[in-house]
Amino acid sequence: MCAANLDQLSASQIAAGVAAGDFTAVEVARAALDAVEQRDGEVQAFLQVSADLAIAAAEATDAARAAGRPLGPLAGVPVAFKDNMNLVGTRTTCASRMLEGYESPYTATCVQRLLDAGATPVGKTNMDEFAFGSSTESSAFHPTYNPWDTTRVPGGSSGGSAAAVAAGEVTVALGSDTGGSIRQPASLCGVVGMKPTYGAVSRYGVVAFGSSLDQVGPFGRRVEDVALAMNALVAAGRDPYDSTSQDCPVDFLEHLEDPVEGRTVGVVPQLLEAEGLSREERTAIQQATVALEAQGARVVEVELPNIASAIAAYYVIAPCEAFSNLARFDGVRYGYQEPGCSTLAEQTSLSRAHGFGEEAKRRQMLGAYLLSSGVYDKYYYPAQQVRTLITADYVRAYEKCDVILLPATPRTAFRFGEISDPTEMYASDMFTISNNIAGNGGISVPMGVGAESGLPVSVQLQGPAFKDRSLLTFARAIERSCSAEGVVAPAFAGKGGELQ
User: Fold this and answer.
1) Is 483 a catalytic residue?
2) Alpha carbons 108 and 402: distance in angstroms, whole number
3) What is the pLDDT of residues 317-326, one digit of tens each?
4) 82 labelled catalytic
5) What's this model's pTM, rounded to 2 decimal places?
6) How far is CA 366 from the centre of its chain?
7) Per-residue pLDDT tens for 202-254?
8) Most Cβ neighbours (<10 Å): which of 178, 195, 262, 309?
9) DSSP H/E element including 120
10) What's the start-to-end Cα distance of the chain, in Å?
């Protein structure tokens, strides 16, 4: 059997190799588990490694091939899931003491669809507690380290998923994105990360943060890997268990290599002059613009006049929804139970006080205040009105262009402890939040490393609702010209995970 390094194979190459008998799914699974064993001590991307599930799934794939049955498009591909996604046989903790011992009673639809496509479940990845954060520092169990520089954060809240892909531990991972929690860590870790249109991917079985904002999406080292994962996520159509789920009857691979000649890219001048945007990130936008123009795309200026209000609106809407969603964790029905309490009120109060971390408590208290009498009308209604204005701005912008090119993050990965002010941390998502408010799709595309920092820099593409396939076409065009396609963080490239 031909020797190959797991790091160097795309998802489609792994699936094709398994189907052809070049190597077995079990060999791939063991290579991935070996990579986790050798690398995760430094990265700490995982909260739980599901070795038994991985080997069992791989054995089932190999048995199906031996029996002559058709294999799925992700046959043998190692995948990881953010730890807010239920998977039978694992815990779903949301990186919180509140759910530390919670055993998944069922499997989330998004997880099941990747498994149905033949994927091998390697484990559950670390995150900011209940997805509240932009650095994975608020995890109750341990931080995750950026594979490019372990003194720096991987971003968040899906930092574990991004780091696992960047370190070559898995080929594909799933995250959730409420205000940028896929695209921001993808940018800081130098991988591709996609937030599909709201409703394109089922959220059933994913622990809710902001129900009108949350969306599940994939990470990969290549645009093709993300497209392949998107096919698996939407192929079965609308999920009856998620009332927001919609049919998305497209093949995300079909037009991946299409030219962008004659198509239009919008840029927003005000965002390129935004306070806090680093020179490296601004340069990445310029390089992506040149690359797209060289391939025949036309670049035009568009306006998003209300985008400056996006963070303010988000930090009204999201905490209100978080307060509502997390009220169930009361120490009685769900979650951590404080021992030795004499009354129900005492048990509820102390269970929540000791089960939740600081950021989780901060956001719930803010939501409780914003939903209180006399405050609701003053803040919540105006925030929803701003949401309508931002959504209308995008609609007008997309009358002039097919996609919008903008930064993914204001800067490269920052050091642990460097940002202690919560409001400064919230600004990490300044270029991503508006897309969640409008419900449109977005993708972060790596552009290599910055000349000054030596750390990954990326750009972001946003598109109209349910035009996510077009986003992937433009992302692939940028990848062809600008990014180091399929790169594993240098410290981890070739370190473990070889198929023998």
Assistant:
1) no
2) 33
3) 999 999 999 9
4) yes
5) 0.96
6) 25
7) 999 999 999 999 999 999 999 999 999 999 999 999 999 999 999 999 999 99
8) 195
9) strand 120-125
10) 8
Tell me phi and psi for residue 374, to 5 degrees.
Answer: 90, -15
Question: What is the pairing mode between strands 192-195 and 216-220?
Answer: antiparallel
Q: Decide: helix, strand or coil at residue 498.
A: strand
Find the Cα–Cα–Cα–Cα dihedral 13, 223, 88, 121, rounded to 10°: 30
Of the residues 50, 96, 139, 157, which is catalytic? 157
Q: DSSP letter string over 234-257?
A: HTT---TT-TT-------TTTTTT
Query: Does residue 125 contact residue 143 with C-beta atoms inside 8 Å?
Result: no
Measured CA distances, 290 to 123, 270, 409, 465, 477 (Å): 40, 19, 20, 26, 12
Domain limits, the chain: 4-264+467-490
Q: Check: CB of residue 473 under 8 Å from CB of residue 441.
A: no
CA–CA gap between residue 173 and residue 20 (Å, rounded): 24
Name the CATH superfamily, with its identifier, for domain 4-264+467-490.
Amidase signature (AS) domain (3.90.1300.10)
Count of all residues that appear for the chain in the document: 500
The catalytically annotated residue of 104, 135, 176, 181 is 181
Quick check: 93 and 47 in contact, CB under 8 A? yes
- Name the catalytic one among 10, 12, 82, 434: 82
Q: How far apart are CA 163 and CA 191, in angstroms?
A: 9
* 212 is annotated as an active-site residue: no
**Residue carrying the six token digits 């990470």:** 219
Tokens of 262: 């004659």
